Amino acid sequence: MELNMAQAEEIKSLKQKADESKKRHQMERDHLEKHFMMIKKILKEENKDLKQQNAEARDDIKVWRDMFAMQRSNDEKFAPNHFMRHEREHLVEQMEDMKEQIKQRDTEIQETKEKLGEVQTECDFFRKKLRVTQLPDNLLGKRISYNFDVDEICKENRYLRELLKHMEHKNVTFGKCKEGNQKMRGWQRGPHTSGILRIPRTNEVNVMLSQKGAQSLPATKKSISELQSLCSSFIDAIVDKDVCLKHQRKTIRILGTRVNELEMKLKTLNIIQH
């Protein structure tokens, strides 16, 4: 009796284990079925995509075959039409862009060349200035240290040259005035002729001016001639004064330019000292 009960319990435990194993297998089978259905669905979608890609690829291949056939026929008929229309337009745009870039580069190169020429000219100027500055040391054998400014010497030379030119012109003008005065004095000392006007002397002019009016002057050829001579001498004196004033203005202008140059130099020296 006890053996039967033990067998029954063992059979019962085996049935429970069998049921659990069956349930577990059922769950695994359901899980595998779900996983299989999911994989099947994914594979169907991938198959659909691949079929669509295959169809598109076949269409592309057909289009490319038609294009190659057309291109081959165009190459056989017309050599210049090697490229398609849109390709030619794209190539033309690229060529235009390249031309613009080349033009811009040429402009930049030209500007660089001009700047380089200016720099070379400036370098040559400073080399010459340095050579002129070092020339006294080379001539004196560097026994005497003499520092000077070439620009200042050039300004001084220009100022002296203008002043010399002005003095020469002034001497020429004064020479002409002196010659004219000598001629007038010769006419005054010479014989009284009808073709030459006599310049009245100072006392005669004072006498004429001390008289009360023009009505008291005798209306003779001599008085008219003296008045004409007096007017001529006044005109000559005015012309001489005008020439002197012009020379004085020019001298003042030259001196003013020189003063401005010296003031600029003084300001530069003050800036350097500070």
Structure description:
By secondary structure, the protein is mainly α. It folds into 2 domains: 66-74 and 81-148; 149-273. The chain is built from 5 helices and no strands. The protein has helices spanning 2-77, 85-139, 150-189, 202-210, 221-273. Helix 3 (150-189) packs antiparallel against helix 5. It starts with a helix and ends with a helix. The model is unreliable at 190-197 (pLDDT under 50). Belongs to the CCDC149 family. Keywords: Coiled coil. Residues 1-26 are annotated as: Disordered. Residues 9-26 have a biased composition (Basic and acidic residues).
| Low-pLDDT segments | 190-197
Give the beta-strand count: 0
Report the biggest beta sheet as strand number plus sense, adding barrel if it closes.
Answer: none
Oligomer: single chain
Which overall shape is indicated by the principal axes computed on the Cα atoms?
rod-shaped
SS field, number of helical segments: 5
Total domain modules: 2
Radius of gyration: 60 Å
The H/E string reads: HHHHH
What separation lies between the terminal Cα atoms?
131 Å
Which structural class fits the helix and strand makeup? mainly alpha
Helix content: over 70%
> What's the overall average pLDDT, rounded?
73
User: Which band does the percent of strand residues land in?
Assistant: under 5%
